[in-house]
Amino acid sequence: MRSPVPTALVEVEVADAPRRGVPSVVLTTAELGETTRAGDGWSLGVGTGAPSTWRTAGASLVRALDEAADAGGPRSYDVLLPESADADRVRALVLGAALGGYRFKLSAERTPTRIRSLRLVVGDLGYVDVLAAEARRAHELATATAFSRDLANTPSNIKDPQWLASTAAKHAAKVPGLHAVVHDEKWLADHGFGGVLAVGGGSARPPRLLELSWSPRSVAGHAPHVVLVGKGITFDTGGISIKPADGMHLMRTDMSGGAAVIAAMLTIATRDLPVRVTGLVPCAENHVSGSAYRPGDVVRHYGGTTTEITNTDAEGRIVLADALAYATHTLNPDVLVDVATLTGAMKVSLGLRTGGLFASTDELATRITTAGTRAWETWWRMPLLEDHADAVKSDIADLRQCPPGPGGITAALFLRNFTANLPWAHLDIAGPARSEKNLDEVVPGATGFATRTLIELIESYTH
């Protein structure tokens, strides 16, 4: 069985005139997202709210047009933009339209017919190039988000550590200047990646470390070398500390942080951004067997730090620790950012639409929240409470994997030990990485959350 990666999205262009014989969509101030059919044409309500609400409108439009296309309707439309359609509204409309129609399904049934293209028609000739550039950027962000969703949605009988790493490397090979290396289990053992090997030791499908390197021909000003680290757990049973059956099927998406890093790296390189960036994705399957790691084990990470294992279902921080240590010891980074579906505590704290942000500096925290605002992804900064720092220490090892206390915070404090006091941010996306229903441009399944923020973060270093 093969996974349909990447998923095709509706094409969007901007022009100063409609196409002959193509039906039109008129935007009105009716209720946000309200779609009304008139012959082959449609009207779409965009309301009177903030520009970001046009994401909802775009997603609603494409869902309605897809349904009509599957019933035999047209597959191309011209969207007549009103004078109020500024750059922010066009970006939001394109993102919503491209992602609102996203679907991932492996089936023997007929694939539903969907619309192929939208042309956004601008009345002001002098504004066409500006809006076309914004539409193109928004579609690039949507494409990255969709690819991240594809990787996370792929079922784990297909997606093992080798598949995830090699699929990323295959797509990286198509982008000039982006280099990919897949390190196998022998290399990991030879170089002391005890955390990744411990977590992956219970599976018959061995772990991998994906290393993506983007070194542009020229670097902007004082732009830093940024290392992005994404959790790549291709399936998580919880190991010996096994999860309950209810909801375990969603653990195919437990590598959503790694998917975000992979998709972001592809887009950063495609855009030829003048910032040096390295992406690391430790890939492993956390399984149950006679060779699985156990509570009470002591694991030696890359660089020598040891960790007392207290819960094998907290495997994400164990593989991230190896990758962070590898980055600080060998890659000479200036900034570290890790992304992971790490703790259920973050879902309780922030719900399902907001990511948790921990940062060692105010500057990096502000940069990430600003990037998230531009990407329409919401982050809430969480505290690195020093009152709990001592709890991460172990009596029989250097560190304790899961100390008592607030789970999201102690997980971040654990990871901080592997960052060599560099500017560092930890993004916990356990809540918003998955969805059970349509929400704006989000559809059921993996959401691709954090992908766009990472791209906008790197973009921010070019200014």
UniProtKB/TrEMBL annotation:
TM helices/strands, residue ranges: none
GO terms, molecular function: manganese ion binding; metalloaminopeptidase activity
UniProt-listed CDD domains: Peptidase_M17
Cellular component, GO, one term: cytoplasm
Every Cytosol aminopeptidase domain range: 311-318
Domain of life: Bacteria
Pfam family, one: Peptidase_M17
A biological process term (GO) from this entry: proteolysis
Keywords recorded for this protein, A-Z: Aminopeptidase, Hydrolase, Protease
Family: Belongs to the peptidase M17 family.
PANTHER family, per the entry: CYTOSOL AMINOPEPTIDASE (PTHR11963:SF23), LEUCINE AMINOPEPTIDASE-RELATED (PTHR11963)
Function, in words: Presumably involved in the processing and regular turnover of intracellular proteins. Catalyzes the removal of unsubstituted N-terminal amino acids from various peptides.
The protein's name in its UniProt record: Probable cytosol aminopeptidase
Organism: Umezawaea tangerina
